[in-house]
Amino acid sequence: MVESINTKVEYAGKGTSFLGLGEYGNILIGDKGFEFFNTRNVNDYIQIPWEEVDIVVASILFKGKYIPRFAVVTKKNGTYSFASKEPKVVLARIRDHIGNERVLRSLSAFQVTKNGLSALLKRLKK
């Protein structure tokens, strides 16, 4: 059995991890870090201490009314994508621990397309 890194749990709820195929489990946010435990396989878990979290990027649609997923970017181990039943509550708890300036909004589809086209035009001009 895996031990939690948290001593106090501030939020516990259902969520999905998008590391590979989508896996259903429980998201725990506590005083020491962010945790995801798979409901089917006990040995399949993700534990990220708050010191290791670099930024959190949230995909926000319809002017903040719908948040389909968010990604936790770590300093060493890459990016972990998650979805939650209550993403606004999850992001608020994360913001309490890492600060408001490190919770960011992801680029919209229009912004990604515009950046890609401008980069393509710059390459073609060279």
Automatic annotation (TrEMBL):
<dbReference type="InterPro" id="IPR010360">
    <property type="entry name" value="DUF956"/>
</dbReference>
<protein>
    <recommendedName>
        <fullName>DUF956 family protein</fullName>
    </recommendedName>
</protein>
<dbReference type="Pfam" id="PF06115">
    <property type="entry name" value="DUF956"/>
</dbReference>
